[in-house]
Automatic annotation (TrEMBL), chains A, B, C, D:
Protein species of origin: Polynucleobacter kasalickyi
This enzyme's EC code(s): 1.2.1.38
Domain (Semialdehyde dehydrogenase NAD-binding) ranges: 3-141
Compartment(s) of residence: Cytoplasm
Keywords: Amino-acid biosynthesis, Arginine biosynthesis, Cytoplasm, NADP, Oxidoreductase
PANTHER family: N-ACETYL-GAMMA-GLUTAMYL-PHOSPHATE REDUCTASE, CHLOROPLASTIC-RELATED, N-ACETYL-GAMMA-GLUTAMYL-PHOSPHATE REDUCTASE, CHLOROPLASTIC-RELATED-RELATED
Entry protein name: N-acetyl-gamma-glutamyl-phosphate reductase
Lineage: Bacteria, Pseudomonadati, Pseudomonadota, Betaproteobacteria, Burkholderiales
Length: 352, 352, 352, 352
């Protein structure tokens, strides 16, 4: 059994880790910390866990995280990097669901997250937690900077088009003019008391936000450059708030280069993801629904080329709290400890 | 033109006052105060008002409320009673949408609202703002303690059964065993940042709250006693939170006394409300929907006696922000200033 | 492995059976029938099942249901009773999710369902599928008439108060004046194209329906009489439609008899359900939420006595498609085949 | 008073016409037809109209539409063109909310709507009902083919960029590569019983649809060509279904041509719509919300140029049933009969 601790489990990614880890056959959950709620059984905050998860929040001091094999950080940005050094020294492996270990450029990190990076040396060895792209590196990683929710959908949606793996390095699309029109349920904003995500404000409503610049933009562009193997990438990223709890739907637009007009893009995607347990390339003509992945670690993709013209439209759906966060974290955990990649991640989506 | 000011207009009842008063032909809105947002155009907070309501929030000092004919308090409890004396001295009439002037018993007020009452003398002259019950008194009132949202639906639902007006003092139902199972949209909780009313918490969900005791219980019982003309009233009141923005649906249960088994309750309700502009007694067998009053000052009632047995079921719907708050306030304003009772209140509900 | 077939799996209870049975370690799903959709993979209708459930709908003829150990009927009323005789003759055990085997009085059945009962003899041996009440009988039953969604919540909510098991036959409440104010998500109406349950009609809205008389009323009263061991039962049942997908919340009202004023009702409920795997009596003061059981077979109950007065308020939540239908069916299946009662039913609710 | 009739008023655009026309000071509503519901008071279908709109549906025969000054067709495609000739002969002016008089190319009409056009001659004189573009022509039109809901948002969003009015014919954007990622509430699908728009299917969900080709695509391209004055237009149009009742949000993407890098696009939009009563160009940096126009005829636009790069992002919101249908129709009616353009269209949006 792998001993696992969770730092900061009061948010939505925390409860999702609990839900899935409680049913993971090779994980022993030893501690979950929350200084503010120390002593409170987790099932008091999330009644869905009553009778199923019987531990209480503990203070970081009582949690003895240094005795874990792995620790998840389901915390605000800045927490993981403050504790990473000590845990690594104790031989603990780290999976950070926040952004501390995502951006390799510390100047970019400071610009977007408004704080200096506390451990650039650890950042250097951190692996970006997106199993479909970095599977081998994740297996031996000590520190995972888990891919963000939007970035997962956008990168996996564009990857087959830009990765040299199947294209042989040939350019298929104009990578200087990528567009991601993304839509997220409000759980993406977390369990924070804010006026903007009240039901009375956000339901029966739709709007864009962060058009000027969203923290996920540099993360996505960094990831796309890594996948493509070149820096010739420019993305316009417009996130929107959908009046629903969970789910991300990214509608990606790419302009096909004349030399790629004859490519069978449906086949390209199917081949690229042929062996992926959690990526489902749907049949041509499909329109994936976010509810088809509600509560599951699955990500579904559909490839369209309307009117046979020069614009590709890629539709991607995922559950932002599962494949976009906690499930993806467990997927990395499984890889890091030599377990089957889908262990504990076999829940079928809840539909309707 | 009646000069009207609004104190504390940043909440939902504030914006509803603005929406309706902006279209009221005899009202001149002279000021809306918010110390916190002073200087900000109201249309910046509520973009629905762009191009239609062109005033900005002002500080209480700048608002010159003492030059108004009437002032609405769309504030938290405790604000109106702190300012009432001075305004009254200046000849301003007051309509308080909060609870400061609802409960005649100051001990009850202190118990439920956790603060001492600051002006028991003014409270004595205050009129309970429920036009269908207190129409004549409202006309000459200087201070209105406007009926709460739930209380409006419960009192108007039970009134025909307990008022001596049409029953001639005969008892029709067991008033010691009244039940109101009430349901409200989340705007009833106001525009406050709270975890419990986030979309991610409150949507796709249903629950009761305040079962142990809700502030509206003493208000309703006081009102029912006044309507009945006796104190033999006992209500069980269970409010619930509905995943919708607006609307209250109260399902009322009353046990018919044997001596009233032959009463035609449908006719009783129709007669009782025959001349009311804002109370719609629907045909027998109807099930009113909250959306049928969305955005309007209408309240709809349906009377049921399932299986012809001894239990009456009264269904009542209203828009909690209109008939349950701001619309009701304007209805009182019209009465106080001798205007047609429905002036500025003729919006048809938005459906779908 | 138990061979299981499903008749009529295109509705919501069908997909829920598939979701849960696909993860049941002792069940082999051999066939799912739909004459209309024969040949279509089930995952084409429910994309949530893609890659997880690989069978297709078949015609009843091709399904070879007579070779199953058990067959679920997830069909409209009237289908199961037409096929029961033949299946029973082949040694197949039947779990009907519709109403064919619920009402023991065939005249009542005809009155509420508008069709004659085709096999009164089989009806006589049918067991009412509510494990918490009929556990022993279910173990050996050949035919289960599974408890309906509302009836499950109402019966399990009143049972501790009226069952002689812990009361010793003493009356605690006035059973002639029971009230159930019940609320259901719209999936309770099934996957039928109807104007009334369109999102544009049912969302941001709340209403009662079926006040004159609902099919579940006779079922509930029959069940309560059986639990109480006497016929002195009268229920007022008012169902409401909540703008959410899943979940039932029943708010039950009962008048405490003077001789029971000193009973510790919280303890009574806790004792009554002490050993039940799927009934959670929450701590005093709790207000259960429907989302706390979303996708799970759990039912949660809270007991209230507002103001210490003579009215008991019992709050009950369940997922109408799981504990109110498919999960309950699998619970019965487990009992019928000597498996652990909670096998395949261990999903933790999805929250948020 | 203008005598107005409505053909086919049982759908959502019908009830919206009723809601607004009932408050229009210069309109007398003389008839509303529905063969199926003839005799039923409209307020029985839409309880929001109880006490406010007192006419009943009538058969086309009884409606005496030929005595109207104007007739709205709120019908499925194909109805208006069957009745147009006779009404025109009687001197009645026609406003068709369906597609019969939108596409000037009858071959295109047949391709997308699957029926031959019955009156190509009348089609020739029909004016496309988009007041901001065709104001003068509308004033004298006998037949209006009202702009569709999506097309209104897309055309008014791109118009300032492509119309020669302010650009002086200079090209600002690459009109061969326009993208509209559009999102609509489900009322856009109408009041038809369909599985896909049930609350249990469409709520807490998000998906694209019609990616292969949507009927509004040829209408939009025709409109953009007319606005631009050239045929060099190519649009990728991807509509999505949002779990809300009303509202359209179109996110438009356009690539700025190098020669236009210095254009002040914010000012361009403000100038272009400076005198429009129903188009609100919001301040730079805004993100318009659909709820800010709920129930109103307003359309709001925000102009973005993320990172100062070469992609323009235009955000447009409207109420699909008002500015996207019925309100727009009344706007045309006002123009046709020489009334103030905003008469009867002054409702402020309902927010929250």
């Amino acid at each position: 059994m792998i001993k696992v601790g969770i730092v900061g489990g009061t948010g939505y990614t925390g409860v999702e880790l609990l839900r899935m880890l409680a049913q993971h056959p090779e994980v022993e959950l030893t501690a979950i910390t929350s200084r503010k709620e120390a002593g409170m059984p987790v099932s008091e905050m999330y009644s869905s866990l009553r009778g199923r998860v019987n531990i209480a929040f503990s203070t970081p001091e009582d949690a003895k995280l240094d005795q874990c094999n792995a620790v998840f950080f389901a915390t605000p940005h800045g927490v993981a990097m403050a504790q990473a050094k000590e845990l690594l020294a104790a031989g603990v492996r780290i999976i950070d669901l926040a952004a501390d270990f995502r951006l390799q450029d510390t100047a970019e990190f400071e610009k977007w997250y408004g704080m200096p990076h506390q451990c650039p040396d650890i950042l250097k060895e951190a692996i970006y937690g997106l199993a479909e792209i970095n599977r081998e590196k994740i297996k031996t990683a000590r520190v995972i900077g888990l891919a963000g929710c939007y970035p997962t959908s956008v990168q996996l949606g564009f990857a087959p088009l830009i990765s040299p793996r199947l294209t042989g390095g040939k350019r298929f699309i104009d990578t200087k003019y990528l567009i991601s029109d993304s839509k997220s349920g409000v759980s993406g904003a977390g369990r924070k008391a804010e006026v903007g995500t009240l039901l009375a404000e956000a339901s029966d409503n739709f709007k864009a936000y962060g058009v000027k610049g969203h923290r996920h933009l540099p993360e996505i562009e960094q990831g796309l450059k890594a996948i493509a193997g070149h820096d010739d990438i420019k993305l316009t990223f417009v996130p929107h708030l959908v009046p629903m709890i969970r789910g991300i739907h990214s509608t990606l637009y790419a302009r096909i280069l004349p030399e790629a007009f004859d490519v069978d893009f449906q086949k390209l995607f199917e081949d690229f993801y042929a062996n992926e347990p959690f990526v489902d390339v749907m049949p041509a003509g499909s329109t994936p629904e976010t509810r088809s992945v509600r509560g599951s670690n699955q990500l579904r993709i559909a490839v369209h080329r309307p009117g046979g013209a020069d614009t590709l439209v890629i539709l991607v759906v995922e559950d932002n709290l599962v494949k976009g966060a906690s499930g993806q974290g467990i997927q990395c955990l499984n890889l890091m400890f030599g377990l089957p990649e889908d262990m504990g991640l076999q829940q079928i989506a809840l539909m309707p």
